[in-house]
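Case 301 in the screening queue. Each case pairs one protein sequence with one candidate compound; here the compound is 1-O-phosphono-alpha-D-glucopyranose. For every case the pipeline is the same: read the inputs, emit a complex structure as tokens, and attach any notable structural observations.

Predict complex for case 301.
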Amino acid sequence: MKAIIPAAGLGTRFLPATRVMPKELLPVLDKPVIQYVVEEALEPDGVDGVCIINSHEKPQIEAYFSVDEDFEAMLASHGKDALAAHVHEASSLPVAFAYQDDPKGLGHAVLCGAEAVGDEPFFVLLGDYFVPDRKMCVRMADISAAHGGASVIAVAPVPEDQVSRYGIIAGECVGCHPDYDAAGEEEGAVWKVTGLVEKPKREEAPSHLFIVGRYLLTPRVMELLRTQTPGAGGEIQLTDAMQRLLADEEMYALVVDPDEGCDTGTPAAWAATNARMALADPASVDAFYEALGRDARDRLG
Ligand code: G1P
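Case 301 output:
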């Protein structure tokens, strides 16, 4: 079973930095954002590889996940074996690449991974967000297993004035994840999805539960994407293919706490994610406070 990570975007929110460097390689502490997403994708049982949907404009991503024996040997010859091992970690991850050179939308990006996925269910993880404890997709897999392998998406409440930025679901609460005692829109609640709409107008949104960017989908979605016509923004939308899937299959949504994950989609969110990860890491928290200057611990701690 594979996971798809779409990563072909231009990263315009991070210009000028992303003129020469893909936003997926921006570091959070010492690792690029996309490595956190890849490691999260590999966490659920049965996921044995990741397919990154890249653009040929960003060869640095593929280079990052490739072995560079000369570089590792150079580090080792300088006595930096631990660093060499750290560098090697990224290149030993089971990562493959497919290419989307024409940005036609998220649905089209996912379809570019069809060959890698084959005739099996697959995860999609949007790359602007990662979950440090890597448990969100694991809990989604639990819900899918409890419902005969149905598709499952992560959703969360969003203020009404923001629904038009996201994919929004319709449905009803039918239970909760076994680790929770939840109902309605609380974290851990499970909904049966009856409709999905991408970027609805405020007055047309069927609920205010938005799709967070973690999907576990059956292979039928790939079939539907092949014939998917453009939707919101003139793009081929994954949400629209999932709406068509409902005619053939059941789908469930797990309510999550989006703050369980870290957003890296804008410079401010990326900076906050770095701060959050530095504060959570015993190896860096003291140095982080020291670097912030006098009284920082009192101001922030
Ligand atoms: C995409 C999806 C949308 C989802 C969102 C989450 O939209 O199409 O359904 O709610 O990601 O971030 P985008 O942010 O690419 O416009």
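Case 301 observations:
- The chain has two domains: 2-265, 266-301.
- The radius of gyration is 20 Å.
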